[in-house]
Each structure stands twice: as structure tokens, then as C-alpha cells.
Specification:
The protein is of the alpha+beta class. The chain contains five helices and seven strands; from the N terminus they run ββαβββββαααα. Helix 1 (37-47) packs antiparallel against helix 5 (193-205).
Length: 220
């Protein structure tokens, strides 16, 4: 969340990628070093199109951090008070963010560099990325890779011909869910930085509409 004070504030440039997926799905973001663990959690949820429906944790130098949820994991440290600068990260240092322990999804975070604060910018902000993040309910990176092979352009084209051949207009409603899958796979090689930054800006300014990002999540 944006903080009025800029005294001794630096910016971390973070590069995050999802483990066990090839080619890489990644983002590069700028965050203030006075961002909290909770801020970083919500930033990653927004940037990767997640719904915050599952448990999570950060693993930093062998210790667990995160937001305690009822019936879930308990963290001894207050995630709304621990700031990133408290860790005194070294350049190129890495740590892990895990989400949905049933799967799980693993996001490796690397401190690429620190840069001066630009007081005219709103943080966090995404400055790059590669490919659309996987739908969170597609049962993990290995299943995602299998689905990626299945939903090839050839398969989608063939299936669309089957769906639209000799169908009445009212029948198309039965295929809406399947068609939404096709929309994802047809754009999976792209990264929509504009949309990500729209929600990150809302989060950074305290605009509650950033939570609408969770409404855009695709489930498979």
C-alpha cells in the first residue's frame, strides 16, 4: 500500500516465475521496501490473476510468513507489520511463495536490484512479464502442461467447427464454459500488463475496487 512518507524508501525490482512450467511464465514488478508481507501477498495475487481462495506462505531464509486464516496455517509474525526492508535482502537473493498446498503452486522471487524511489509513481507496478498465468484450479503445473498440449490451435479449431456446425442459436449456451476455456488458451502466450497495472494501481492507492481483480479469475 502506498505510504505518504518517502524517507529512506528504496524500490526493489523483483522477478517472479512459476516453477515447473516451460516456457517460463514470469513477471517483473517494482515494490517499495516498506511494503509489508501482506502487501506482497496481495500484489502477487493480483499480478498472477489468483483469487486468494487458498492458503499460502512465504519461505524466507527457512522461516514461514503469511496471513493467518481461520482453520489454516498460523504465523507468529504480523504480516501487516513486517516490511520487506526488515530482511535486508541481498541482491540476487531468492525466496519462495507457495499457494494452494493441495497442488501446490510455487513462485520463486528474486531480488534483481534496488532503485531510487520515484515519488511521482504509484507502487507496486509491473514493468514486464511473459505469458498469461495458469488458471489456479487446473491442478498444478504438470496438469497445466498437459492441458496446454491438449488445447492446441488445431484442437480448438476442430472443436469450434463441431460446436457451431448445425446448431441452433439457443444451443450455444451449453458450450459457454468450454468456449471460455478456449479464450484463455488462445491468449495464453500473451501478457496483459495494462490490466495487471490497473489493479495494482488501485491497490497501491487504497482503492477497494482492486478486489475486482479476483472476479476476473478463470477456473478450469
Amino acid at each position: 500500500m502506498q505510504n505518504e512518507s518517502s524517507h529512506n524508501i528504496e524500490i526493489y525490482q523483483l522477478r517472479i516465475y512459476i516453477r515447473h512450467i516451460s516456457p517460463l511464465i514470469w513477471i517483473r514488478i517494482l515494490v517499495r521496501n516498506d511494503s509489508t508481507i501482506a502487501d506482497l501477498h496481495y500484489t502477487l495475487q493480483i499480478a498472477f490473476g489468483l483469487s486468494d481462495s487458498y492458503l499460502h506462505q512465504f519461505l524466507i531464509r527457512g522461516k514461514r510468513y503469511g496471513i493467518t486464516k481461520d482453520g489454516g496455517m498460523y504465523f507468529s509474525d504480523d504480516p501487516y507489520k513486517i516490511e520487506l526492508k526488515n530482511f535486508h535482502f541481498h541482491l540476487k537473493e531468492r525466496f519462495l511463495y507457495e499457494y494452494n498446498f493441495y497442488v501446490p503452486w510455487e513462485y520463486e522471487i528474486r531480488i534483481e536490484k534496488t532503485i531510487p524511489l520515484n515519488s511521482r509513481k504509484i507502487y507496486p507496478v509491473c514493468i514486464g512479464g511473459g505469458r498469461t498465468a495458469p488458471p489456479e484450479d487446473c491442478k498444478g503445473p504438470w496438469t497445466f502442461m498437459e492441458l496446454k498440449q491438449k488445447y492446441s490451435l488445431f484442437y480448438i479449431h476442430k472443436r469450434l467447427l463441431e460446436i457451431f456446425k448445425d446448431k441452433e442459436e439457443e444451443e450455444f449456451e451449453y458450450y459457454q464454459e468450454e468456449l471460455s476455456y478456449f479464450k484463455y488458451w488462445l491468449t495464453a502466450e500473451r501478457f496483459n500488463r495494462k490490466t495487471v497495472n490497473q489493479y495494482l494501481k488501485q491497490y497501491g492507492t487504497g482503492d477497494k475496487d482492486w478486489e475486482k481483480a479476483f472476479e476476473e479469475v478463470i477456473f478450469i
